[in-house]
Design a protein that fits this description.
The chain is of the alpha/beta class. Helix content is 47%, strand content 11%. Helix 2 packs across helix 8.
């Protein structure tokens, strides 16, 4: 089976995606960036295909109420505001509501999520690394930029931005039942 057919077979039975959750450790750097950048794309892209999708974010743990300054600065440089952001912890109700959960690290996000909520069904079908879902095959982990210098912090957010764009393209294809 060719790679393209293999990838398609993994997603062909996936239901329509209407609820997307971005999950990181503390819901202050990566996941809020992903949520608000996705909402900005949704609002600013001339596409009806995104209008019914709900983007959200959460953390496995609760560290801070506000997003990190580096995340705010990067989003503001793109004209993205996040005045209404409220950090939240992941809970069972939030997981059940989602069609797709996109994480940034296998060990610290995907595995912990699946271990903590192992009693929930269908986690394997809806939990992915962001870059894995986006179709990347190498360097799938996106490190926490919390302690990085601004230049390195921005590089991490740029990787997330690129992954979001590819993932949204894939979501549109899945929702339109197009073959890859």
């Amino acid at each position: 089976m060719g790679l393209k057919k293999l990838i398609y077979s993994l997603y062909e039975n996936m239901p329509k995606i209407k609820h997307v959750l971005f999950l990181c450790s503390g819901n202050t750097c990566r996941s809020p960036f992903a949520e608000y950048f996705s909402k900005w794309l949704q609002k600013n892209e001339d596409s009806n295909e995104l209008k019914d999708i709900e983007f959200d974010s959460a953390g496995l743990f609760h560290y801070y109420e506000q997003p990190q300054e580096g995340t705010l600065k990067y989003l503001n440089s793109k004209g993205v505001e996040m005045d209404d952001f409220q950090a939240k912890d992941l809970d069972e109700e939030l997981i059940i509501k989602q069609d797709l959960i996109l994480c940034f690290e296998e060990k610290y996000h995907v595995r912990k999520l699946k271990r903590k909520f192992k009693h929930l069904k269908d986690l394997d079908e809806k939990v992915f690394l962001l870059l894995e879902f986006a179709g990347d095959t190498e360097n799938l982990e996106i490190e926490d930029p919390f302690y990085l210098e601004e230049n390195e912090y921005n590089k991490v957010l740029k990787r997330i931005e690129d992954g979001i764009i590819k993932s949204i393209e894939k979501i549109i294809k899945i929702n339109n039942s197009e073959e890859y």
